[in-house]
Amino acid sequence: MPPVTNRGAARIVAAATSVVGGLAAVTGLASVGAASYFARRVVTPESERPDDALVTALDRAADPPTVTFRADEWSTAPGRYGLWFAADTGHARIGDVLSRDDDRGEVTRELHGVDQGDLAPGPARWSGYYFSGPPDRSLGLDHENVRIAGELGDNPAWVVPAGDGERWAVLVHGRGATREETLRAVPVLHELGITALVVSYRNDTDAPASLDGRYGLGLHEWRDVDAAMAYAVGRGAQELILFGWSMGGAIVLQTLEQSRGSDRVSRVVLDGPVVDWADVIRHQAAINRVPRPVGALGQMLLGGKVGRHLIGLHEPLEIGLTHWVARADELRHPILLIHSQDDGFVPYGPSAALASARPDLVTYARWEVAEHCREWNTDPQRWERLVHDYCAGPDPRAGREALAAATRQ
Protein backbone atom coordinates (compact mmCIF):
# COMPACT_ATOMS: atom_id res chain seq x y z
CA MET A 1 0.00 0.00 0.00
CA PRO A 2 1.51 3.40 -0.96
CA PRO A 3 2.23 5.85 1.84
CA VAL A 4 -0.45 8.42 2.67
CA THR A 5 0.77 12.02 2.78
CA ASN A 6 -0.68 14.65 5.08
CA ARG A 7 -2.09 16.45 2.04
CA GLY A 8 -3.71 13.24 0.81
CA ALA A 9 -5.16 12.56 4.24
CA ALA A 10 -6.60 16.07 4.35
CA ARG A 11 -8.31 15.51 0.99
CA ILE A 12 -9.81 12.26 2.32
CA VAL A 13 -11.15 13.98 5.43
CA ALA A 14 -12.49 16.90 3.41
CA ALA A 15 -14.33 14.56 1.07
CA ALA A 16 -15.78 12.58 3.97
CA THR A 17 -17.01 15.60 5.88
CA SER A 18 -18.59 17.10 2.78
CA VAL A 19 -20.63 13.92 2.25
CA VAL A 20 -21.56 13.23 5.85
CA GLY A 21 -22.18 16.36 7.87
CA GLY A 22 -21.94 14.43 11.12
CA LEU A 23 -18.26 13.75 10.41
CA ALA A 24 -17.26 17.40 10.55
CA ALA A 25 -15.36 16.79 13.79
CA VAL A 26 -13.17 14.14 12.18
CA THR A 27 -10.01 15.91 11.12
CA GLY A 28 -6.38 15.02 10.65
CA LEU A 29 -4.33 12.06 9.78
CA ALA A 30 -4.84 10.38 13.17
CA SER A 31 -8.60 10.13 12.69
CA VAL A 32 -8.24 8.73 9.19
CA GLY A 33 -5.72 6.21 10.46
CA ALA A 34 -8.01 5.15 13.29
CA ALA A 35 -10.98 4.81 10.93
CA SER A 36 -8.89 2.78 8.48
CA TYR A 37 -7.63 0.49 11.24
CA PHE A 38 -11.18 -0.10 12.51
CA ALA A 39 -12.46 -0.85 9.01
CA ARG A 40 -9.58 -3.26 8.36
CA ARG A 41 -10.48 -5.16 11.53
CA VAL A 42 -14.02 -5.63 10.21
CA VAL A 43 -12.91 -7.27 6.95
CA THR A 44 -9.68 -9.03 7.98
CA PRO A 45 -9.81 -12.74 8.91
CA GLU A 46 -8.56 -13.43 12.41
CA SER A 47 -5.68 -15.89 12.63
CA GLU A 48 -5.49 -16.26 16.42
CA ARG A 49 -7.98 -16.30 19.28
CA PRO A 50 -6.84 -15.70 22.87
CA ASP A 51 -7.60 -18.08 25.71
CA ASP A 52 -10.53 -16.92 27.85
CA ALA A 53 -10.93 -19.78 30.34
CA LEU A 54 -8.90 -21.27 33.17
CA VAL A 55 -9.30 -24.94 34.12
CA THR A 56 -8.47 -25.35 37.81
CA ALA A 57 -9.31 -29.02 38.42
CA LEU A 58 -10.65 -32.24 36.88
CA ASP A 59 -12.36 -35.24 38.43
CA ARG A 60 -12.65 -38.04 35.89
CA ALA A 61 -13.68 -40.51 38.59
CA ALA A 62 -16.79 -38.55 39.54
CA ASP A 63 -20.22 -39.62 38.29
CA PRO A 64 -20.58 -37.76 36.04
CA PRO A 65 -16.97 -36.66 35.38
CA THR A 66 -16.42 -32.98 36.13
CA VAL A 67 -14.16 -30.08 35.24
CA THR A 68 -13.76 -26.97 37.41
CA PHE A 69 -13.15 -23.48 36.05
CA ARG A 70 -12.40 -20.03 37.36
CA ALA A 71 -15.84 -18.42 37.58
CA ASP A 72 -16.61 -15.74 35.00
CA GLU A 73 -19.43 -14.88 32.57
CA TRP A 74 -18.43 -17.63 30.15
CA SER A 75 -17.86 -20.47 32.59
CA THR A 76 -21.17 -19.80 34.36
CA ALA A 77 -23.27 -19.56 31.17
CA PRO A 78 -26.01 -22.21 30.92
CA GLY A 79 -25.83 -24.94 28.32
CA ARG A 80 -23.22 -27.12 26.64
CA TYR A 81 -20.06 -25.88 24.90
CA GLY A 82 -16.81 -26.85 23.30
CA LEU A 83 -13.51 -26.14 25.03
CA TRP A 84 -10.27 -25.74 23.10
CA PHE A 85 -7.03 -26.23 25.01
CA ALA A 86 -3.29 -26.77 24.44
CA ALA A 87 -3.11 -23.96 21.86
CA ASP A 88 -6.27 -25.23 20.16
CA THR A 89 -4.85 -28.71 19.56
CA GLY A 90 -7.21 -30.31 22.09
CA HIS A 91 -10.99 -30.25 22.32
CA ALA A 92 -13.44 -31.23 25.07
CA ARG A 93 -17.23 -31.16 25.37
CA ILE A 94 -18.51 -29.37 28.46
CA GLY A 95 -22.00 -29.74 29.93
CA ASP A 96 -24.18 -27.88 32.39
CA VAL A 97 -23.12 -26.16 35.60
CA LEU A 98 -23.27 -28.58 38.53
CA SER A 99 -22.12 -26.34 41.39
CA ARG A 100 -20.51 -23.01 42.28
CA ASP A 101 -18.06 -22.11 45.03
CA ASP A 102 -18.27 -18.35 45.43
CA ASP A 103 -15.64 -18.32 48.16
CA ARG A 104 -13.09 -19.88 45.82
CA GLY A 105 -14.43 -18.12 42.74
CA GLU A 106 -14.91 -21.42 40.90
CA VAL A 107 -17.63 -23.25 39.01
CA THR A 108 -17.85 -26.99 38.34
CA ARG A 109 -19.44 -28.33 35.16
CA GLU A 110 -20.11 -31.76 33.72
CA LEU A 111 -17.41 -33.13 31.42
CA HIS A 112 -19.14 -34.88 28.50
CA GLY A 113 -15.96 -36.06 26.84
CA VAL A 114 -12.52 -35.25 25.43
CA ASP A 115 -12.35 -35.57 21.66
CA GLN A 116 -8.64 -34.94 21.22
CA GLY A 117 -5.67 -34.03 23.38
CA ASP A 118 -5.07 -34.45 27.12
CA LEU A 119 -7.21 -32.04 29.14
CA ALA A 120 -5.40 -30.75 32.23
CA PRO A 121 -5.56 -27.68 34.50
CA GLY A 122 -4.44 -24.56 32.64
CA PRO A 123 -5.60 -21.98 30.11
CA ALA A 124 -8.27 -22.85 27.55
CA ARG A 125 -10.82 -21.21 25.26
CA TRP A 126 -14.60 -21.46 25.21
CA SER A 127 -16.30 -22.27 21.94
CA GLY A 128 -19.79 -22.71 20.57
CA TYR A 129 -18.44 -25.73 18.66
CA TYR A 130 -19.69 -28.54 20.85
CA PHE A 131 -18.89 -30.93 18.01
CA SER A 132 -15.33 -30.95 16.68
CA GLY A 133 -13.84 -32.66 13.66
CA PRO A 134 -15.31 -34.39 10.61
CA PRO A 135 -18.86 -35.79 10.91
CA ASP A 136 -17.75 -39.42 11.16
CA ARG A 137 -15.65 -38.63 14.21
CA SER A 138 -17.80 -35.94 15.86
CA LEU A 139 -21.29 -37.22 15.05
CA GLY A 140 -20.78 -40.86 14.16
CA LEU A 141 -22.22 -40.22 10.69
CA ASP A 142 -20.61 -41.34 7.44
CA HIS A 143 -19.47 -38.48 5.24
CA GLU A 144 -17.57 -37.70 2.06
CA ASN A 145 -14.71 -35.24 1.77
CA VAL A 146 -15.34 -33.33 -1.45
CA ARG A 147 -13.96 -30.26 -3.19
CA ILE A 148 -16.31 -27.80 -4.86
CA ALA A 149 -14.97 -25.82 -7.81
CA GLY A 150 -15.39 -22.09 -7.19
CA GLU A 151 -14.24 -19.04 -9.09
CA LEU A 152 -11.06 -18.82 -6.96
CA GLY A 153 -10.30 -22.53 -6.75
CA ASP A 154 -11.56 -25.64 -4.99
CA ASN A 155 -13.39 -25.20 -1.67
CA PRO A 156 -13.35 -28.25 0.63
CA ALA A 157 -16.69 -29.47 1.97
CA TRP A 158 -18.29 -32.37 3.82
CA VAL A 159 -21.26 -34.26 2.40
CA VAL A 160 -23.33 -36.23 4.92
CA PRO A 161 -25.70 -38.38 2.80
CA ALA A 162 -29.26 -39.02 3.94
CA GLY A 163 -32.59 -40.10 2.48
CA ASP A 164 -33.07 -40.47 -1.25
CA GLY A 165 -30.62 -37.68 -2.08
CA GLU A 166 -33.25 -35.30 -3.47
CA ARG A 167 -33.34 -32.90 -0.50
CA TRP A 168 -30.09 -31.14 0.38
CA ALA A 169 -29.21 -28.51 2.96
CA VAL A 170 -26.25 -26.18 2.39
CA LEU A 171 -24.71 -25.08 5.72
CA VAL A 172 -22.77 -21.78 5.79
CA HIS A 173 -20.67 -20.80 8.80
CA GLY A 174 -19.93 -17.29 10.02
CA ARG A 175 -17.06 -14.80 10.06
CA GLY A 176 -13.86 -16.22 11.51
CA ALA A 177 -15.54 -19.57 12.09
CA THR A 178 -15.04 -23.00 10.52
CA ARG A 179 -17.32 -25.68 9.11
CA GLU A 180 -17.58 -27.18 12.59
CA GLU A 181 -19.84 -24.32 13.67
CA THR A 182 -22.65 -25.77 11.57
CA LEU A 183 -22.39 -29.41 12.66
CA ARG A 184 -25.11 -28.90 15.28
CA ALA A 185 -27.70 -28.93 12.48
CA VAL A 186 -26.54 -32.16 10.83
CA PRO A 187 -28.19 -34.75 13.15
CA VAL A 188 -31.62 -33.11 12.71
CA LEU A 189 -31.20 -33.03 8.95
CA HIS A 190 -30.02 -36.64 8.87
CA GLU A 191 -33.09 -37.72 10.83
CA LEU A 192 -35.27 -35.98 8.24
CA GLY A 193 -33.50 -37.68 5.33
CA ILE A 194 -31.90 -34.43 4.16
CA THR A 195 -28.33 -34.63 2.84
CA ALA A 196 -26.10 -32.02 4.51
CA LEU A 197 -23.48 -30.14 2.49
CA VAL A 198 -21.15 -28.42 4.97
CA VAL A 199 -19.24 -25.84 2.96
CA SER A 200 -16.23 -23.56 3.19
CA TYR A 201 -15.70 -20.33 1.30
CA ARG A 202 -12.98 -17.89 0.26
CA ASN A 203 -10.50 -16.84 2.96
CA ASP A 204 -11.26 -19.82 5.19
CA THR A 205 -8.03 -21.37 6.43
CA ASP A 206 -8.56 -24.41 4.19
CA ALA A 207 -10.01 -22.58 1.16
CA PRO A 208 -8.51 -20.31 -1.51
CA ALA A 209 -7.85 -16.70 -0.54
CA SER A 210 -9.44 -13.79 -2.36
CA LEU A 211 -7.21 -11.35 -4.24
CA ASP A 212 -7.15 -9.00 -1.25
CA GLY A 213 -7.43 -11.60 1.52
CA ARG A 214 -10.35 -9.63 2.97
CA TYR A 215 -13.92 -10.58 3.77
CA GLY A 216 -16.57 -9.30 1.38
CA LEU A 217 -19.23 -9.36 4.15
CA GLY A 218 -21.35 -11.67 1.99
CA LEU A 219 -21.15 -9.50 -1.11
CA HIS A 220 -18.47 -11.76 -2.61
CA GLU A 221 -18.72 -15.02 -0.65
CA TRP A 222 -22.19 -15.79 -2.03
CA ARG A 223 -20.52 -16.96 -5.24
CA ASP A 224 -18.94 -19.87 -3.35
CA VAL A 225 -22.33 -20.84 -1.91
CA ASP A 226 -23.78 -20.58 -5.41
CA ALA A 227 -21.13 -23.07 -6.56
CA ALA A 228 -22.05 -25.36 -3.66
CA MET A 229 -25.72 -25.22 -4.68
CA ALA A 230 -24.80 -26.12 -8.25
CA TYR A 231 -22.73 -29.03 -6.91
CA ALA A 232 -25.72 -30.32 -4.93
CA VAL A 233 -27.99 -30.07 -7.95
CA GLY A 234 -25.39 -31.94 -9.98
CA ARG A 235 -25.58 -34.71 -7.38
CA GLY A 236 -29.36 -35.01 -7.74
CA ALA A 237 -30.75 -32.36 -5.38
CA GLN A 238 -34.28 -31.31 -6.32
CA GLU A 239 -34.83 -29.10 -3.27
CA LEU A 240 -32.34 -26.95 -1.39
CA ILE A 241 -32.48 -25.53 2.14
CA LEU A 242 -29.94 -22.85 3.06
CA PHE A 243 -28.61 -22.44 6.61
CA GLY A 244 -26.50 -19.44 7.67
CA TRP A 245 -24.90 -18.49 10.97
CA SER A 246 -23.77 -14.87 11.66
CA MET A 247 -22.01 -13.57 8.52
CA GLY A 248 -23.14 -16.83 6.96
CA GLY A 249 -26.62 -15.35 7.21
CA ALA A 250 -25.49 -12.29 5.25
CA ILE A 251 -23.94 -14.62 2.67
CA VAL A 252 -27.16 -16.63 2.36
CA LEU A 253 -29.29 -13.50 1.91
CA GLN A 254 -27.02 -12.34 -0.91
CA THR A 255 -27.16 -15.82 -2.44
CA LEU A 256 -30.94 -15.75 -2.49
CA GLU A 257 -30.83 -12.44 -4.34
CA GLN A 258 -27.94 -13.15 -6.72
CA SER A 259 -27.95 -16.88 -7.49
CA ARG A 260 -29.71 -18.26 -10.53
CA GLY A 261 -30.24 -21.43 -8.53
CA SER A 262 -32.26 -19.74 -5.79
CA ASP A 263 -35.52 -21.04 -7.31
CA ARG A 264 -34.57 -24.48 -5.99
CA VAL A 265 -34.39 -23.09 -2.43
CA SER A 266 -37.56 -24.04 -0.56
CA ARG A 267 -36.76 -22.41 2.79
CA VAL A 268 -33.98 -20.79 4.81
CA VAL A 269 -32.75 -21.07 8.41
CA LEU A 270 -30.73 -18.16 9.82
CA ASP A 271 -29.05 -18.20 13.25
CA GLY A 272 -27.78 -14.91 14.72
CA PRO A 273 -27.58 -13.49 11.19
CA VAL A 274 -26.13 -10.20 10.02
CA VAL A 275 -29.22 -8.57 8.53
CA ASP A 276 -27.67 -5.09 8.37
CA TRP A 277 -23.88 -4.68 8.37
CA ALA A 278 -24.14 -0.93 9.08
CA ASP A 279 -25.90 -1.71 12.36
CA VAL A 280 -23.27 -4.30 13.31
CA ILE A 281 -20.42 -1.91 12.52
CA ARG A 282 -21.98 0.85 14.63
CA HIS A 283 -22.43 -1.61 17.48
CA GLN A 284 -18.86 -2.87 17.24
CA ALA A 285 -17.54 0.69 17.19
CA ALA A 286 -19.50 1.46 20.36
CA ILE A 287 -18.39 -1.60 22.35
CA ASN A 288 -14.77 -1.06 21.26
CA ARG A 289 -14.99 2.61 22.33
CA VAL A 290 -14.36 3.90 18.84
CA PRO A 291 -15.70 7.49 18.62
CA ARG A 292 -18.89 7.58 16.58
CA PRO A 293 -17.47 9.89 13.86
CA VAL A 294 -14.43 7.63 13.46
CA GLY A 295 -16.63 4.53 13.22
CA ALA A 296 -18.86 6.25 10.67
CA LEU A 297 -15.82 7.26 8.61
CA GLY A 298 -14.53 3.69 8.76
CA GLN A 299 -17.84 2.41 7.42
CA MET A 300 -17.75 4.97 4.62
CA LEU A 301 -14.19 4.05 3.72
CA LEU A 302 -15.31 0.44 3.15
CA GLY A 303 -17.46 1.63 0.27
CA GLY A 304 -15.23 4.33 -1.20
CA LYS A 305 -12.50 4.21 -3.80
CA VAL A 306 -10.03 6.05 -1.57
CA GLY A 307 -10.82 3.79 1.37
CA ARG A 308 -10.19 0.77 -0.84
CA HIS A 309 -6.47 1.64 -0.85
CA LEU A 310 -6.35 2.45 2.86
CA ILE A 311 -8.09 -0.78 3.87
CA GLY A 312 -6.60 -3.04 1.23
CA LEU A 313 -9.81 -4.03 -0.52
CA HIS A 314 -9.73 -5.19 -4.12
CA GLU A 315 -13.03 -3.42 -4.70
CA PRO A 316 -15.33 -1.27 -2.53
CA LEU A 317 -18.07 -2.88 -0.47
CA GLU A 318 -21.57 -1.45 -0.92
CA ILE A 319 -22.75 -1.79 2.68
CA GLY A 320 -26.23 -0.57 1.75
CA LEU A 321 -26.83 -3.81 -0.16
CA THR A 322 -26.66 -5.69 3.14
CA HIS A 323 -29.51 -3.69 4.74
CA TRP A 324 -32.26 -6.31 4.44
CA VAL A 325 -34.78 -4.46 6.58
CA ALA A 326 -34.77 -1.72 3.93
CA ARG A 327 -34.84 -4.41 1.22
CA ALA A 328 -37.46 -6.55 2.94
CA ASP A 329 -39.90 -6.35 0.04
CA GLU A 330 -37.32 -8.08 -2.17
CA LEU A 331 -37.35 -11.30 -0.13
CA ARG A 332 -39.07 -14.28 -1.75
CA HIS A 333 -38.16 -17.26 0.45
CA PRO A 334 -39.62 -18.43 3.79
CA ILE A 335 -37.14 -17.88 6.63
CA LEU A 336 -36.84 -19.32 10.12
CA LEU A 337 -34.86 -16.64 11.95
CA ILE A 338 -33.29 -17.56 15.31
CA HIS A 339 -31.64 -14.77 17.31
CA SER A 340 -30.88 -14.10 20.96
CA GLN A 341 -31.73 -10.76 22.53
CA ASP A 342 -28.49 -11.09 24.52
CA ASP A 343 -26.30 -11.38 21.42
CA GLY A 344 -23.37 -9.10 22.20
CA PHE A 345 -21.76 -9.28 18.77
CA VAL A 346 -24.60 -9.00 16.24
CA PRO A 347 -27.54 -7.08 17.79
CA TYR A 348 -30.92 -8.75 17.34
CA GLY A 349 -32.77 -5.51 16.54
CA PRO A 350 -32.53 -5.77 12.73
CA SER A 351 -33.67 -9.42 12.89
CA ALA A 352 -36.76 -8.41 14.87
CA ALA A 353 -37.37 -5.53 12.45
CA LEU A 354 -37.10 -7.85 9.45
CA ALA A 355 -39.61 -10.23 11.02
CA SER A 356 -41.99 -7.32 11.58
CA ALA A 357 -41.54 -6.11 8.01
CA ARG A 358 -42.21 -9.54 6.46
CA PRO A 359 -44.40 -11.61 8.82
CA ASP A 360 -45.64 -13.49 5.74
CA LEU A 361 -42.17 -14.97 5.18
CA VAL A 362 -40.17 -14.69 8.40
CA THR A 363 -40.80 -16.94 11.41
CA TYR A 364 -38.94 -15.30 14.29
CA ALA A 365 -37.70 -17.40 17.23
CA ARG A 366 -36.24 -15.15 19.91
CA TRP A 367 -33.85 -16.54 22.49
CA GLU A 368 -32.75 -15.13 25.83
CA VAL A 369 -29.42 -15.48 27.65
CA ALA A 370 -27.55 -16.99 24.67
CA GLU A 371 -24.51 -15.19 23.33
CA HIS A 372 -23.76 -14.87 19.62
CA CYS A 373 -24.79 -18.00 17.65
CA ARG A 374 -25.04 -20.00 20.88
CA GLU A 375 -28.79 -20.49 20.87
CA TRP A 376 -28.33 -24.22 20.27
CA ASN A 377 -25.82 -24.38 23.12
CA THR A 378 -28.22 -22.95 25.69
CA ASP A 379 -31.29 -24.89 24.59
CA PRO A 380 -30.48 -27.64 22.07
CA GLN A 381 -33.87 -29.33 22.49
CA ARG A 382 -35.79 -26.21 21.50
CA TRP A 383 -33.41 -25.40 18.64
CA GLU A 384 -33.60 -28.90 17.19
CA ARG A 385 -37.38 -29.08 17.56
CA LEU A 386 -37.84 -25.76 15.74
CA VAL A 387 -35.51 -26.73 12.91
CA HIS A 388 -36.98 -30.21 12.65
CA ASP A 389 -40.56 -28.99 12.41
CA TYR A 390 -39.67 -26.20 10.00
CA CYS A 391 -37.72 -28.43 7.62
CA ALA A 392 -40.14 -31.36 7.89
CA GLY A 393 -43.08 -29.37 6.55
CA PRO A 394 -44.29 -29.49 2.94
CA ASP A 395 -42.26 -27.70 0.29
CA PRO A 396 -43.58 -24.09 0.31
CA ARG A 397 -42.76 -23.86 -3.39
CA ALA A 398 -45.66 -26.20 -4.20
CA GLY A 399 -48.17 -23.65 -2.95
CA ARG A 400 -46.49 -20.82 -4.84
CA GLU A 401 -46.38 -22.86 -8.05
CA ALA A 402 -50.07 -23.79 -7.73
CA LEU A 403 -50.99 -20.16 -7.15
CA ALA A 404 -48.95 -19.08 -10.15
CA ALA A 405 -50.60 -21.74 -12.33
CA ALA A 406 -54.05 -20.68 -11.20
CA THR A 407 -53.20 -17.04 -11.93
CA ARG A 408 -52.12 -17.92 -15.49
CA GLN A 409 -55.41 -19.74 -16.26
List the helices and strands and how they pair.
Blueprint: H1 6-19, H2 28-43, E1 53-59, E2 66-70, E3 81-85, E4 90-101, E5 106-116, E6 122-127, H3 135-138, E7 144-150, E8 153-160, E9 167-172, H4 186-191, E10 195-199, H5 222-234, E11 239-245, H6 247-258, E12 265-271, H7 277-287, H8 292-302, H9 305-311, E13 335-340, H10 349-357, E14 362-367, H11 375-378, H12 380-392, H13 396-408
List keywords for this structure.
single chain; 409 residues; alpha/beta; 6-stranded antiparallel beta barrel; 13 helices; disordered C terminus
What would your notes on this structure say?
- The chain is an alpha/beta fold and 409 residues long.
- Helix content is 33%, strand content 24%.
- It contains 13 helices and 14 strands.
- It has helices spanning 6-19, 28-43, 135-138, 186-191, 222-234, 247-258, 277-287, 292-302, 305-311, 349-357, 375-378, 380-392, 396-408; strands at residues 53-59, 66-70, 81-85, 90-101, 106-116, 122-127, 144-150, 153-160, 167-172, 195-199, 239-245, 265-271, 335-340, 362-367.
- The protein has an eight-stranded mixed sheet with strand order 7-8-10-9-11-12-13-14, sandwiched between helices. The chain has a six-stranded antiparallel β-barrel with strand order 1-2-5-4-3-6.
- Strand 7 and strand 8 (153-160) form a beta hairpin.
- Helix 5 (222-234) packs across helix 6 (247-258) and helix 8 (292-302) packs across helix 9.
- Residues 1-27 and 402-409 have low confidence and may be disordered.
